[in-house]
Q: What sequence folds into this?
């Protein structure tokens, strides 16, 4: 008898968790204009401040990992957080939550203004949206720098990576070099101890 109640209770919690994952990422998905970096404030507010599913460091790790894997930050974050909170089904449900608004919005926009994307009204609206997105991205970059710069080694890596990007080095090479150098420095510090 106790086992049945316990199993039923666990299934109810799981269903509630799946609904919570879907609705949280659905909210994020509805306002993710401008791509990954523009949505970082939304991820922070929903996943760190409200739900407490991850920390700032976790978000930085997800963003870093997202740069090395196929897909956007939104999908990678949804899949990772959904998976950690609700196993494989949680990852699927959270991913569906984040992509559903985009599918709906793009379909609706195409249906309503598909032939009028070049009109002055639509272009002015996008100009306003782009300006707001730049502000959101700047805030995200500022927060990422503050949480990611831990010591002089991080600052040196950041400056070297930035210089490499401006010199035209491929981002994958920069990531691999950063990982290798980080590992070497960590390994060397172990020998000093």
A:
């Amino acid at each position: 008898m106790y086992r049945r109640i316990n199993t039923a209770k666990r299934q109810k919690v799981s269903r509630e968790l799946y609904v919570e994952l879907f609705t949280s990422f659905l909210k994020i998905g509805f306002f993710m204009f401008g791509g990954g970096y523009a949505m970082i404030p939304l991820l922070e507010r929903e996943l760190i401040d409200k739900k407490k599913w991850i920390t700032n460091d976790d978000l930085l790790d997800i963003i870093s990992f997202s740069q090395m894997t196929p897909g956007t930050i939104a999908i990678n974050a949804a899949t990772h957080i959904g998976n950690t909170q609700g196993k494989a089904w949680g990852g699927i449900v959270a991913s569906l939550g984040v992509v559903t608004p985009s599918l709906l919005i793009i379909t609706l926009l195409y249906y309503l203004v598909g032939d009028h994307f070049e009109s002055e009204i639509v272009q002015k609206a996008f100009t306003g949206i782009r300006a707001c997105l730049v502000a959101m991205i700047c805030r995200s970059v500022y927060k990422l720098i503050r949480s990611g710069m831990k010591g002089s080694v991080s600052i040196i890596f950041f400056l070297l990576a930035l210089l490499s990007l401006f010199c035209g080095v491929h981002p994958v090479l920069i990531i691999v070099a950063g990982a290798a150098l980080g590992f070497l420095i960590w390994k060397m510090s172990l020998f000093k101890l």
